[in-house]
Amino acid sequence: MFSSRNGFWPALPALVLLFAFFLFPVVRMLGFSVEGGTFDWYAKALGQGLYIRVLWNTFEIALLVTLFCLLLGYPLGFLMATTTPGWATLGFIFVLLPLWTSVLVRTYAWMVLLGRNGVFNRLLVEYGITSDPIPMLHNFTGVLIGMVHVLLPYMVLPIYGAVRKVDPAIPAAAAGLGASSWRIFWRIWLPLTLNGVFAGCVLVFILSLGFYITPALLGGGRVIMIAVLIEQQVREALNWPFAAALSAVLLVATFLVYTIAQRFSQPEPAR
Amino acid sequence: MDIKRRHVVSLMGGAAAVGVAGRAVAQAEPPKPAQIVVNHSGGSMGTAMRKAFFNGFEKKYGIRVVETSPVDFGKLRAMVDSGNVEWDLTEIGGQDAIRAGKANLLEKIDTKVVDRSKYPPTAQNPNVFASSVYTTIIGYRTDVFKGGNHPKSWADWWDVKKFPGARSMRNHPTDNLEFALLADGVPKDKLYPIDFDRAFKKLDQIKPHVNVWWSTGQQPAQLLLDKEVVLATGWNGRFYDIIKKGAPVEIEWGEGALKQGSFAIPRGAKNPYWANKMLAELAIPQQQAVYASELGYPGLNLESLNFVDAKVKPYLPTAYLDKQFWISDEWYAENGTKAAELWNAWMLKKS
Q1: Cβ neighbours of residue B48 under 8 Å, at least 6 residues apart?
Q2: Which of A193, A7, A215, A8 is nearest to A103 (CA)?
Q3: How confident is the model at residue B1 (pLDDT cuts 50, 70, 90)?
Q4: Distance of CA B304 to CAs B36, B240, B290, B319, Å?
Q5: Most Cβ neighbours (<10 Å): which of A104, B45, B81, B129?
Q6: What is the pLDDT of residues B198-225, one digit of tens each?
C-alpha cells in the first residue's frame, strides 16, 4: 500500500483526517457497544425478532433500490457519455440539479405527485385509464420511487465516467468486423464499464442502508428501516450502547455484502 | 477620639457593606454576554417566539438571541457530557425533561428570577419551565363531515361504519395507546399504568383503516388539505394554522391528549443567569398571549388568557381543559422505551 514513499506523504493529511474523524469515532462507538464488558446489547440486537426483521427489510429495500437505479442509470450514463457535448451538458443539469435540492423538499414533492389526489392519479382517473386512484404513496412503492430518485445520480456518474474511459476505437473495430450491436455491448461495453457499475452499485447500496427521512414520509410509517431504530435509541431512548451495537451489526453486515459483491464483480483475470 | 474611632469604624463598616452589596449586585447580575443561544423546534414556532419574546428581550437587555434547532435530546446529553454546552436554553420534550432532570443534565431554575406564582402547581418543576400547552386532537374535513356529524370521541374514531373514510394517526405509541384505551371504555383517570395488551388489541381494529402513520407534525395538516385522508389526529397548532388560512378543516377537542411544551437550561450552560432572564420573559402573560395568537399554543401563566383576542380563544386547548386528559410524562419517562419497542413490533406485524 505504501510501497511508494512519494505517494504516502501527500496522502498524509487525508489519512490523518480519516483517522481522527472516522476510524477513531467508529472504534469508540464499538467500545460503547460492549460497555461494562458485556455482550448483552448484541444478544438483544440479534436475539429479538424485531431488529433482525428490520435489518432484513433494510437490505431488501437497499437491494431493490440499487437494482432499479442500475436499470435506469446505466442507459442514462451511457447516453450522456456517448452523445454530443450539448446534450451531455443538459443531461448533467438534469442529473445534478436534484442532487443540490434538499432531500426533504424532494420527498414532499413526491407526496404531491403520488398522492390519492396527486397529479398522477388525477391524470389517470381523468383520462379513464383507471377508475380508482392507484395507491402509489404511503406504501413500499412510494419508498422505492422516492429513494431511486434521490440516489440515481450516484449510479449515473460512475457509469458515465467508466463509459468515457473506453477507447471508442474498440467498439468501432468490433463493428467493422461485423459484430452486432448487442454483441458489442455484451462483449466490449459491459466488461469494460463493470468497474463503474460496481462503484455505482456500492455507493447506492450503502447510502440506501442509512436512509430514514424518505421511508418515514413516503412509506406511511409502515416501512421501517434500521436507521430509524438506531436514531430512536440515540435520541429518544438515550440507550447509546444499544444504538452502538445495532450500528456495529449493520456495519458488519454491510461489509460482508460488500466483500461478496466485490468477489463477483471482479472475475479471475483470463490466463 | 472615641467618637472619631467609632465614626471611622462605622465608615469602614459602611464601606465594607457597600463592598458586600457591590459584590452581591455583581453576583446577581453577571456581565452581559454579546449573545445567548436558545435552541427550539424551529419553523413557525421560531418565528412566533421571535415576535413574542426574543425581540423584547434583545431590546430590554441589549443581548442578541441566537436561535438554533432542532430539539435533540441526544445532542443535549452529548453537550453536557463533553462539557461543551452551546445552548443557554433549550426546548425539550415533556418526558425527556423529566429524564434529563433525573440524569442531572439540567440546571435548576432560579425562582428569584423567574416568577411562576401564577402557574398551576403541577407546572412548577424545579428544572423544567412549562412554556406552553399543546394537545393531540381530531382534525376533520368539513366538506365530508357536515352539520356537527363528525367523530367526537375515540369510540367514534374507531367506529368506521358510522364515520367511514381514510384516517391518519401518529407513528408513535404516545397518544395512540391512550386513545385505544379510551375507545375501549377505560375512563380518563384510569389510563395509567397503560395496559399494553388491551391497547394493542384495540389498535389492531383500527390499523386497516389508517392510511398514513405520520411522523412529522406538518403531515396531518397536509394530508387533510390534500384530502389524502378525511380524519387525522394532530397537534392543535398545525390545524389552527390551516384553518386560519381558510382550509375546510375543523378541530374536535373531545378527549384530546394534553401535553406541555418545556424549556430547560442545560447543565454547564455558559450564561445560566441570562437564560433564567429569558425564562422570565417567557413567563410574562401578555407575551404568552401574543405567542398563543400566532400558533394556538397558550402559555401556562393562567393570566395570559385575559390578553387573548376573543376570536382566538376557541382555538386554544386551555379553553377545553376538562374535555381532555393529560399525558403522563412520568409514566413515559419510565416506560417510553418499552412502549416504543412494542409499537415498532406491532407496526411490522402483518395485519
Answers
A1: B290, B291, B294, B295
A2: A215
A3: very low
A4: 26, 19, 9, 12
A5: B129
A6: 999 999 999 999 999 998 888 999 999 9
Q: B197 — contact with chain A (CB < 8 Å)? A: no
Searching chain B, which residue's CA lies closest to the CA of residue A135?
A: B211
What nine digits make up the cell of B123?
A: 407546572
Determine, yes or no, domain membership for A61: yes
Q: How far is Cα B335 from Cα B129, in angstroms, rounded to an integer?
A: 23
A50/chain B closest Cα distance in angstroms: 6
**Structural domain contains residue A85:** yes
DSSP 8-state assignment for residue B53: I
Quote the longest CA-to-CA distance of chain B: 102
For residue B96, which residues of chain A lie inside 8 Å, CB to CB?
Answer: 236
Under 8 Å between Cβ of B165 and B150: no
Residue A148 lies in a domain: yes
Number of neighbours of residue B1 by Cβ within 10 angstroms: 5
**Which stretch, A219-223, A228-232, A247-251, has highest mean pLDDT?**
A247-251
| Overall residue count recorded for chain B in this entry | 351
Q: Which helix (H) or strand (E) element contains residue B330?
A: helix B329-348
A239 neighbourhood in chain B, CB within 8 Å: 337
Query: Which residues are CB-contacts of B320 (< 8 A; sequence separation ≥ 6)?
Result: B253, B256
User: Which range marks the domain in which residue A158 is found?
Assistant: 49-265
What's the total number of domains in chain A? 1
Q: Is A125 left (phi over 0), alpha (psi -120 to 50) or beta?
A: alpha
Report the distance separating Cα A44 and Cα A245, nearest Å.
9
Contact A221 B344 (CB under 8 A): no
Confidence of residue A4 (pLDDT cuts 50, 70, 90): low
- Asked if the structure places residue A8 within a domain, the reply is no
> pLDDT tens across A102-152, in order?
888 888 899 889 988 888 998 998 898 888 888 889 999 999 999 999 999
Amino acid, single-letter form, for residue B274: W
Within an 8 Å CB–CB cutoff, is residue B345 touching chain A?
yes
Q: Is B104 on the interface with A (CB under 8 A)?
A: no
Question: Residues A106, A149: contact at Cβ < 8 Å?
Answer: yes
Please give, rounded to a whole number of angstroms, the shortest distance from the CA of A81 to a CA of chain B: 41
At B19, the pLDDT band (50, 70, 90 cuts) reads very low
Q: Answer yes or no: are the C-beta atoms of B327 and B94 closer than 8 Å.
A: yes
Q: Could you tell me the domains of chain B?
A: 33-133+261-307 (3.40.190.10), 135-258+320-348 (3.40.190.10)
Burial class for B146, CB neighbours closer than 10 Å (0-12, 13-18, 19+): exposed
What average pLDDT does chain A have?
A: 89
What backbone phi and psi angles, to 5 degrees, belong to A191? -60, -35
**Beta carbons of B169 and B210 less than 8 angstroms apart:** yes
The pTM of this model reads 0.83
Determine contact, residues B346/B206, Cβ cutoff 8 Å. no
